[in-house]
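[Q] Does anyone have a clean structure-token version of this?
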Amino acid sequence: MVRNRVKRQLRHLVRAELAVSDPHARIVVRALPAAASENERLAADLHDAWAQTIRRLRKVTEVSEMAQEPKVTR
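[A] Here you go.
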């Protein structure tokens, strides 16, 4: 079945991405039907989307941490 093949490919590709990600991050991966027809592109698209998501999460985390820092007034 095509859907199961894509699911196996994604599972394999995500393992590599998880190795360099925050272990506490929760990321959902959803493949569109077109993913079944382009195997080489699936890996590149996943890597690019994963990197973009990690950058966004870091930015949100930094802003959140800055908001929690106590303000020093003189």
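[Q] Thanks! Anything notable?
[A] The chain has one domain: 2-68.
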